[in-house]
Sequence to fold (305 residues):
Amino acid sequence: MPAAARPILKWAGGKRQLLPVLRPYYPRAFDRFFEPFLGSGAVFLDLHAAGRVDGHGVHLSDVNADVIGCYRVVRDSVEEVIAALQRLEEGHRAGGAAHFYGIRDRRFNPLRREVHAAPHPADRYTPDLAAMLIYLNRTGYNGLFRLNSRGEFNVPAGRHGSIRICNAQNLRRLSEALARPGVTLRVERFEEALSGASAGDFVYLDPPYAPVSPTAYFTSYTAAPFGSSEQSALQRTVLALARRGVSVLLSNSVAPDIQALYADSDEVRGAGFTVTTVEARRAINSRASARGAVHEYLITNIQRC
Ligand SMILES: C[S@@+](CC[C@H](N)C(=O)[O-])C[C@H]1O[C@@H](n2cnc3c(N)ncnc32)[C@H](O)[C@@H]1O
Fold:
């Protein structure tokens, strides 16, 4: 069995808490695995820990070039990332929030701007930049990845006491998981990432949440929004995948838009999908009162084990 790695990033909508309700829907047998809204990669890492992706093609992608760039550097240069992260951890222990803001504003944002000024920023990520992303994510407010209108990472320092910043063993395990033959890591929109999925493949989809009400908070992961036209495009992609014989598991918020697209759609039911509501804990929210149990849709054409 491969050594289990935990997610290294705290990601809004991270699916670790939902794994027990997702697992019964992992197909008994599948060919390749696709996770095109990767974020912290909780489902990929869960399948990997169980040995379920051994010998299978694995296509991991996200539209966020920082996330993919960071994972590629962890895969290829993990010892350099660990060394840089240990230095950041020491700085944080000594300097706290002042250290956080110094790194964010004087090192991370200027270096990130250079990397994003050229095409293919994920290819240009460095161990220093990856370590700073992990550091800012672990010590920043609620683990958010948020950019302002100038494209600068602007999340404030969090308020946790002695959070573990560098878990070297876990980083090495993640590096091994990502370096396995057949695993690809790409910066892609979901449509592109799924264009090659075919009969027998398994796709897990975890798009950004649709707002549960017009005034609900919105968490931006990138400068590109994921609004109702993207949710509609995703529904069309889900139906097309099912027609091609792909096993699809999709989680989404119990929001009016999502209910209309899936739960109330004859076309979706006719394509063999079931829509169930499960309880999840949403750890990341800017309002403490909105944390805690929430309901989430599981939309799938897979028979529950
Ligand atoms: C809810 S998060 C996924 C969380 C992940 N399942 C986890 O456990 O951490 C949604 C992800 O979708 C990505 N994303 C947003 N729009 C996208 C698009 N059009 N195509 C692909 N990925 C997109 C975001 O960058 C974000 O990482």
Summary: Residues 11, 13-15, 36-37, 39-40, 42, 62-64, 67, 189-190, 206-208, 221-222, 226, 230 surround S-adenosylmethionine (CB under 6 Å).
